[in-house]
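Readers outside the structure-tokenisation community will struggle with the description of the input data as it stands. Showing the layout once, in full, would remove most of the difficulty. For illustration, here is how one protein appears when written out as sequence plus structure tokens:
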Amino acid sequence: MSNIFEKILGRQDRFEGYLFDDELPKVRLRELKHFCREHGVSLADLSLIDQALTHTSFAHESEQEMADYERLEFLGDSVIGLFIVEHLYNSFPAMNEITSDVVSQAALSDAATKLGLNRLLNLGKGEVLSRGRRKPSILSDTFEALVGALYLSSTLEETKEFVINQLEERIQDVVSRGNLENYKSLLQRAALERFGENPSYRVLSRTGPQHSAVFVVGVEIKGNLYGKGRGRSKKDAEMQAANKTLQTLRSKKRPRT
């Protein structure tokens, strides 16, 4: 979906437009504009961005009535989940049940820190003293609220791009680990569908000293040995064996007897 402003104005470059509340201080406006430009956000309501960066403690201490990030956080949580599920579904069709690792509190708080949201946060005095700018719960909530604000005031495409860019490193890390972790579950489903039986894993050999042992594990289905795996732990060897067995089943090779 191309940017609507490009269609209307015939522009090739990104249209830049920031809406803002006249009550926001000029210093804060400059700060938020700089943040948006630095991270590829060309359309945004800066008053909503400011709200996303306002903790409840700050709003409660303010002499004026002020909205905090709670409602935006609720929206952003759902938006992030949808974008990540869609991205994983389209980009990694073999992967299942890894979304929670990508959008965990640790992952989102890390993304918030890398964005510098801890420095932009409006926090109450109590939270500042209790090191609220370092709390994973606050940082992850702030990231979700920011995404909620972008979803409401920017384009869907730009918001999705922002989310994927900020979590791309985490996605790659989880996927690289999940490829191994997923082999056993994939094999279990394949074995049940093809043979009506779960695979079993048997340690065939263990060599080397205690601190540096090497395991060889075999996968058996209906008494037949289908694949072997080698690793520094039984778990690693089982994963490799499951992968080899999947390859054997897909190539329709006969098992060893």
